[in-house]
Amino acid sequence: MKVLVTGGAGFIGSHVVEELVNHHFEVVLVDNLVTGSLDNLLNTVKIYQFDINDQEIEYVFERERPDYVIHLAAQVSVTASMNNPFFDLQTNMVGTVKLISLAKKYNVKNFIFASSAAVYGEPAYLPIDENHRLHALSFYALSKYSAEKYIELYDAIYGGNSCILRFSNVYGPRQNADGEAGVVSIFIRKLVRGENVEMFGGYQTRDFIYVKDVAKACRLAIEGEHKGIYNICSGIETSIEGLLTQIFEETGVTKIPVYQPIRVGEIERSVLDNSKVSSSFDWFSHYSLQEGLHETVHYYSTVSSSKLSMK
Q1: Which residues does the chain have with pLDDT short of 70?
Q2: pLDDT tens digits for range 202-251
Q3: Which of 140, 230, 287, 300 is catalytic?
């Protein structure tokens, strides 16, 4: 079976591609390589260097005739979405509508959309399940929420078969630690470089999920041709200070963080409920935070060492 992965050269996408190849799927991918990198990819995978809003995207569907689509390409920076909401809308909502339309036109069996826990906003209760009310606090969250609604309505009208996966805080190797990025990659890269770590608040809690567990969930979603909305998360609440303590243990580096006030509008507590996906997919988060951090620290330590040796 053939799978088209958008954003397949990116952080999450490259791990999804590896998961699919390792389970004998034929994989093609689309990536504009703005944030993705060819260094993340297996040499055997075919890539089309297009943006999802390019006219040429239909050529990929017409030529490849994918059985499944996993749509991961997105503008993922909350800050960038606030500075340029139009670009955010074009990429995350308009691009998604274009892809779901092409999926229907070319008889794709299952369309998997990567959404975000950001659509829930400030939690009314914990853990957050899929029935929790949605309340976007950023244009990024609004674009993901709106794309979800387009997918659901498109399926209702045209009989599509789509699955929406709401990721919690994904971390792991290859995550971009420059600019707007996951706190895990930011902390680790600073520590392995001997730099100071800034802590904005620190008492906030998040639900960290390892990227390889996310990749497995994407594979299981297409194997079961699942429909509906599912949280992809660890279901474990971890404070940012607790996270940094574990990273200290893995890196062997301890630095007193430079404390800053919590950012305005930041959610203080967040943890998701994964019981629905566990029962429907027979999926669970295989990697503990300690195991995931161990692999991630090893990756960044290796990258930093190789760069130093090239100087």
Answers
A1: 177-181, 265, 304-311
A2: 999 999 999 999 999 999 999 999 999 999 999 999 999 999 999 999 99
A3: 140
Ordered domains of the chain (ranges, CATH):
2-172+210-234 (3.40.50.720), 183-203+238-270+288-309 (3.90.25.10)
140: annotated active-site residue: yes
C-alpha count within 13 angstroms, C-beta hemisphere, residue 4: 32
